[in-house]
Amino acid sequence: MADATMYNFQALQEAVVHALDGQPNAINRAGRIVNRAITWITNQYRWRWREKPIAIGINQVNLPNGVLAANWNYNPYRNATVTSPSAWDAGGTTTGSPIYRDGANTIWVYSPNHGLQPALYVSINAAFQSASDTAVFTGAFTVLTTPDANTFTYANTGPQDLNALNKGGTSPYGYWVPGHYVLPSDFSAIRTLRCPTLSLMRVTPVTLDEIFRLRQLVITTTLEIFYCVSSLPQASLTTPPVPILYIFPTPTATVLNYLNGIYVRRICPLTNLTDVPDIPEQFLDLVYWTSRAMAVSSEQDRAGEDWRMVMSQLEQLKAEDAMDQEPEGYMKPLANETSGVFVNEFGLRLINVN
C-alpha cells in the first residue's frame, strides 16, 4: 500500500512548485496544475475503473395529508373571499387540500422539498371528491412555476376549486411522479442502460426534443424506453448544474429498478491539502509525474524527462487495464470431452445445462 501522504493534494502541489524552481506565485498555480493533470490522465483512455453500476428507480412523492395554512405561503384562501381555513376546509379544521385551483387557470401543489424546476414533467395521481375533478386535476403536466421549495404549479383551465382532494379518502391524498431521474453527483456519461424487468425492451438514447415530442403525442405504450441526459440549471453561481436523465415513458407509480446499467464517473478535483486523487493506487505515481511535467511543459509540447516518464507509465497502464484483455470468444468443447463441458479462452470449465 502506497503512502497516501506522498500523493495528497499538498504533496502534489509541492512537486509542481519544485518543478517550477520556486517561481513567483508558483503555489497559486500548483493546485490548478495538479487537478488538470488528473483530468488529463482520466481522459486519455476509456479506463475500466471509471465505470460504475447504476440502478434507476422512479419514486412517487406522496402529497401531505393536510396543509397547515400557517405553513403554506400560497394557501387556498389567498385568492378567495373567505377569511379563515374553516371556510374552505370542509372538515372545519386548520388543514386544507395540498392541491387547489386558484381561479386563474393555475393548479397549486403543496409538496415539501419537491426539487422541481419550471418546464420539468410530472404525473399527478390523486383521489378527488368528484369524477370531474379527477378528470381535470390528474394526468401528465409540465411544471409552470416553482414559487418556493415547497410549492409548484401547472396550468389547468376551470373554475376556482379550493378543496378538491377527497378528505374522507385514505391516506395519503395522492402522489406525483417526476418525469426525470437525478443522476449521481459524480456522473460523467452513460455507458449502457437496460430494462431489467423487460429484457427484450430496447432502451434508446434520443434528443431532448424527441422526448418532448413523444410526450406531446400522449403515447402510453411503446416497444422502447427512450432517455436523454441533460442538466438542471444552476441553483446559484457557486453550485454546478445537476445532471438528470429524462425518461419516456415515465412510470405512473413507484418502480424501484426501472432501468439499470453502467455510467462513467467523474473524478472530483482535489481541494484540501490532505486529499488523495480518487483513482487506483497504481496510477498515483503517474499523477505525480504528470503534475511535474505540466508544470514545465504543456501537454502539446511534451518536452523533457518528466513527459518521457509520463508517456512510458501511461502506455504501461493502458496495457494493464482490463479493457485491453482479449475477448473470451466462443465456448469450445474440451479435446476429449463429449459430455457438454466447455472451456473458454481463460481455461474456465463451463457446463452446458441444456
- Mean pLDDT across the residues is 75
Number of helices: 7
Say how many strands there are: 20
> Helix content range of the residues, please?
10-25%
Any low-confidence stretches, pLDDT <50, length ≥5? 67-94, 166-170, 325-354
Label the CATH architecture of the domain at 61-178. Beta Barrel
Shape: elongated
Beta-strand portion reads 25-35%
Structural class: alpha+beta
Strand order of the largest sheet: 2-11-7-8
CATH C-level category of the domain at 61-178: Mainly Beta
Kindly report the CATH topology of the domain at 61-178. Elongation Factor Tu (Ef-tu), domain 3
Mind telling me the C-alpha Rg? 28 Å
How would you sum up the major sheet?
4 strands, antiparallel
Distance between the termini: 46 Å
Describe the fold and architecture.
By secondary structure, the protein is α+β, with helices and mostly antiparallel strands. Among the domains are: 4-47 and 278-324, no CATH class; 61-178, Elongation Factor Tu (Ef-tu), domain 3; 329-354, no CATH class. Helix content is 22%, strand content 27%. The protein contains seven helices and 20 strands. The chain has helices at residues 9-19, 26-42, 85-88, 131-137, 208-216, 284-296, 305-320, and strands at residues 51-58, 61-62, 67-68, 95-96, 99-101, 106-110, 121-126, 139-142, 145-148, 151-155, 174-178, 180-182, 187-194, 202-205, 224-232, 242-248, 255-265, 332-333, 341-343, 349-351. The strands form six sheets. It has a four-stranded antiparallel beta sheet with strand order 2-11-7-8, covered by helices on one side. Strand 5 (99-101) and strand 6 form a beta hairpin. The protein is elongated and about 80 Å long. 26% of the residues are buried. The model is unreliable at 67-94, 166-170 and 325-354 (pLDDT under 50).
